[in-house]
From TrEMBL:
Signal sequence extent: none
Listed name of the protein: Olfactory receptor
Location of the G-protein coupled receptors family 1 profile domain: 39-287
Tree of life domain: Eukaryota
Amino acid sequence: MDDDLNVTYITLGGYLEVQKYRYLYFMIMFTVYILIICCNSTIVCLIVIHRNLHEPMYIFIAALLINSVLYSTNIYPKLLIDFLSEKQMISFQACLFQTYIYYTLAASEFLLLSAMSYDRYVSICKPLQYPTIMRKTTIKVFLVSAWLVPACELVVSAVLNANIKLCRFILDGLFCNNAMFNLQCVRSAALSIYGVFMLLNIGLFPMLFVLFTYTRILIISYRSCREVRKKAAQTCLPHLLVLISFSFFITYDVVIVKLESNFPKLAHSIMTLQMIIYHPLFNPFIYGLKMKEISKHLKRLLNHTIKSALTV
């Protein structure tokens, strides 16, 4: 606690041998961050530039990739600063804000995946009604809701936690997440209940909705012709892979708070790094390779870049 400024600081205790390997850590994570921005931004630009990609499915993919960049930007700049700092510290208010943004964007990803699954369901199971249902207005409502609903729900939790008294000031992590609530002197029952409500409303229910819609798609496509089955496999598989990957990491992130005292620090740090490195790079990799139209434009861009480089 800084009495002069009346600011509470939290030490981030998840760093391992940072004094010894600070520059190596910095270079690795800086490179990863640049890769995340470039890979995601490239596919977003392709979707914006090419008119044949101005369809609901690709618009949702672009939104998902933008969400990945925002998710990474919430973490990486502070992480890079900490690698070069003597002490890895953050104010309680900044920590609370980072946690708020972190879970808002995580919940937005689930809601965007839900919107994408609904789009695929209508496209494959109700093709004649697709233009009527998936209008521009519907897409805009889905996109705004995906970011606005989690932001509104989580701001209540952030405001209620703003004046909570802390009894511990060392957070076992590389950045602020729900582990910060273990620092509280007394856990509020009301906040815990509200936390469960949020987890169900913007996490579990959207995930179950995605699984339900894809199950329906698989059942209907199995009964249909080969062309329908091929279309379902091509468009649904990437979304399912992203959902499984993200659900795994978020489940770990939520459950680890309960196991924090018994979970090895090294294993915790490795899993945390998997969350912030693997998933933001997994999205553009999956959509860039598995989505036929995006892959086609991406290959053209790479070929053009290579030819230009050779010409020079």
